Amino acid sequence: MHVHTRYAMVFCGVKKGDWLEFTNLLVERLFNNLHFFMEELGRGEDDSFREMFNCFPAHHPRPYFCQRGDRSVQSHINDVAWQFEDRVYQVGTLPDNEFESASFDEWVNSLLRKTKVSKDYFCPDEEMFLQWASHYGQLHDDELRLVRPFFSSLRCQMIDSIQDEAKIAEIQAQMEMVAASMTDGTSQEKATIPDHVVDLFAFKSDVKH
């Protein structure tokens, strides 16, 4: 989970201590997930999109793994884990590390989140895309201003495409439950709880200097 945006990705069957496989899977999934939004935005083949992926390895030539404690982040991780376990129980099998896991990423990152520093609720996919485009992209300010309306339109299309009223009610109930749990989590005091949070942007300033 990315600390600042709460963007989460799930991986299955990665061997303990195999940092190379994990890093390759993480970067490939992140690129593919964001490429989907760029295509929807009509910029999937644009030079600015390729520039993003050229900039990323230049800023992050090697992975960094650090142990840190953040109760708010951990509460979001716990929620993603619960949602993942529930999905696996319904399907009856673990997803692969390609399309199936990416599909779960897409869904779970569209759920509302809340942190102490954010005034309003937000969706991790939207915040991650904005941060990615701001750090590595060549999008102009007027293009960045179109991102939030774009994501709002995507969510409306998703709801409109669902005809089953029971399914819509289930999605709304899940989103309300997540919002309630996040409010409880952010109201608690910070504590030093070891976790494994990977922050893709934490070392950008170190690399540049």
Q: What's the number of domains?
A: 1
The major pleated sheet works out as: 2 strands, antiparallel
Query: Helix proportion of residues, in percent?
Result: 55-70%
Q: If you average the pLDDT, what whole number results?
A: 77
| Percent of sequence in beta strands | under 5%
Question: How many distinct helices?
Answer: 9
Q: Span from first to last CA?
A: 25 Å
Domain DUF6933: 1-127
Pfam families: DUF6933 (PF22016)
Protein name: DUF6933 domain-containing protein
InterPro entries: DUF6933 (IPR053864)
Which properties best describe this structure?
209 residues, DUF6933 domain-containing protein, 9 helices, single chain, 2% strand, DUF6933, two-stranded antiparallel ribbon, mainly alpha, globular
Write up this protein.
The chain has a two-stranded antiparallel ribbon. The chain has helices at residues 19-40, 47-59, 71-91, 99-108, 124-136, 141-144, 147-161, 165-186, 204-208, and strands at residues 68-69, 194-195. It is 60% helix and 2% strand. It is mainly α. The longest helix has 22 residues, at 19-40. The chain has one domain (19-208). Pfam families: DUF6933 (PF22016).
